[in-house]
Design goal:
Number of helices of chain A: 5
CATH class of the largest domain in chain A: Mainly Alpha
Largest interface: A-B, 34 and 29 residues
Radius of gyration of chain B: 19 Å
Structural class of chain B: alpha+beta
Order of helices and strands of chain A: EEHEEEHHHH
Number of domains of chain A: 2
Shape of chain A: globular
Distance between the termini of chain B: 53 Å
Oligomer: heterodimer
Number of strands of chain B: 14
CATH architecture of the largest domain in chain A: Orthogonal Bundle
CATH superfamily of the largest domain in chain A: [2Fe-2S]-binding domain
Helix content of chain A: 25-40%
Shape of chain B: globular
Strand content of chain A: 5-15%
Largest sheet of chain A: 5 strands, mixed
Strand content of chain B: 15-25%
Number of domains of chain B: 3
Radius of gyration of chain A: 17 Å
């Protein structure tokens, strides 16, 4: 299409992983684009780009959302947490990983790893709201995240280990 | 080329501002709730001419209120928010709502998508409009001078992608009316996988008085361009004790009135018709056996 397009920019304010960020965007930009291309936070993936695979899951004001289909302008003023924002909560480890990340590693809840940031962010939100989910609740919660390597068994085991540990 | 490339993205703080922007941009304006369906449509190249997005999220319409048994939903109420109102569902009358919401796509979508958006989109295979239609939900359309037009959902959804909205109007909220005492409702659907749209879905509201059905409503989705009210099937249930013979006869009535259900790449009309008869029985039984109230 050769026609010229009028592009306007606008400024939004986000708190990303605890840090205030002012970003200049185009009105049609998605949060996924802003995180990855403008802020360099490439831990959040872009998979199906149509709200089905969950690889792009981030937390907006502590709730899991698909960043691929969320217009960045809509997120203006909100708090965004991405996989880069997870912090270790104990000091006895060289590798600074969140307990959810450790559980996925310890239970082999990943293979290629592409879907993992999305699964981990969703798990964070699930356990925040429901610290002791049953296996059925876990499977139900994970319905919006696809993994094409693991067959899900190890992912569910990883999440259940956290549910049991916190019991 | 797909995508959404508006010149402006507005988040008005008052209804008057919304109306003024809609008048200024006319058909080039797009009203946005949660934006999830808009994103899907834009990626398919349907929204390239949009010049202004009017995002309703700053209007303070994110409240759910109860007034004399009516439930008032602001335009920005999300699917997750409605799902969490457990106390609303205790009586069983509104049971079709949590039924429909629970399996309605992933949590990540339910956290963004709005109830008003799910209705305004006018997508015939959505679940929530069918449940809301079964409860005789009314849509509050706001326009010039703050005037509110109240439109029953089945009139509001005119056709595929065609809500009853004139220039300068937007959906400010929805009203789920008080259901008759003793009413129980339920929703079921048939999908090919957990992430897919319904092939057929069904909502039913049943009231049983002294062992017999005193009123019945049955609505199907994904069989026509808008929710289909099965009046004859519902009428066949009234006065019965919902035994097998009554449900069989309701199925026969449905056969007669559901003349030409949607046929597409997912399912033939004949297949949908068979599914509809199965869901009719399941949904009516589920509603009638619901506890509460």
């Amino acid at each position: 299409m050769g026609e010229t397009m009028t592009t306007t920019t606008m400024t939004i304010n986000l708190t990303v992983n605890g840090e205030k960020r002012e970003v200049s965007i185009e009105p049609g930009d998605t949060l996924n684009f802003v995180l990855r291309e403008k802020l360099g936070l490439t831990g959040t993936k872009k998979g199906c780009d149509s709200g089905g695979c969950g690889a792009c899951t981030v937390l907006m004001d502590r709730k899991p959302v698909y960043s691929c289909m969320l217009y960045a302008a809509k997120a203006d003023g909100s708090e965004i947490t991405t996989i880069e924002g997870l912090q270790n909560d104990d000091d006895d480890d060289d590798v600074k990983l969140d307990p959810v990340q450790k559980a996925f590693a310890n239970h082999y809840g990943l293979q290629c790893g592409y879907c993992t940031p999305g699964f981990i962010m969703l798990t964070k939100a699930l356990l925040d709201e429901n610290p002791h989910p049953t296996e059925e609740e876990v499977r139900q919660a994970l319905v919006g995240n696809l993994c094409r390597c693991t067959g899900y068994t190890k992912i569910v085991e990883a999440v259940m280990s956290l549910s049991e540990r916190r019991r | 080329m797909g995508g959404l490339h508006p010149e402006n993205y507005f988040k008005p703080k008052t209804p008057a501002e919304v109306v003024s922007i809609l008048h200024r941009y006319k058909e080039d304006a797009l009203i946005m709730g949660g934006g999830t369906e808009i994103y899907e449509l834009s990626e398919r190249g349907f929204l390239t001419s949009v010049k202004a997005v009017v995002d309703l999220s700053n209007l303070g319409l994110d409240k759910i209120r109860e007034r004399d048994g009516e439930v008032l939903l602001g335009a920005s109420v999300t699917l997750s928010q409605l799902e969490r109102q457990r106390e609303l569902y205790a009586g069983g009358a509104l049971g079709c709502l949590p039924d429909a919401l629970r399996d309605l796509g992933p949590l990540q979508v339910r956290n963004m998508a709005t109830v008003a958006g799910a209705v305004t989109a006018c997508i015939p295979f959505f679940d929530l409009p069918v449940a809301l239609a079964c409860l005789n939900t009314v849509i509050e359309v706001q326009g010039d001078g703050g005037k509110i037009r109240r439109v029953p959902i089945l009139t509001f959804q005119r056709d595929y992608l065609q809500p009853d909205l004139n220039e300068g109007e937007f959906v400010a909220g929805l009203v789920v009316p008080k259901q008759e005492d003793g009413t129980k409702s339920a929703f079921t659907k048939f999908v090919s996988n957990a992430g897919d749209w319904s092939i057929v879905n069904c909502a039913s509201a049943i009231r049983v008085t002294r062992g017999k059905v005193s009123s019945a409503k049955v609505v199907f989705g994904a069989v026509a361009n808008k929710p289909f009210v099965a009046e004859r099937a519902a009428a066949a249930l009234v006065g019965t004790r919902l035994d097998d013979a009554a449900l069989e006869s309701a199925g026969g009535a449905l056969d007669e009135e559901l003349v030409d259900p949607t046929s597409d790449g997912k399912a033939s009309g004949a297949y949908r018709k068979r599914l509809a008869k199965i869901l009719l029985k399941e949904t009516v039984r589920k509603a009638a056996s619901r506890r509460g109230g």
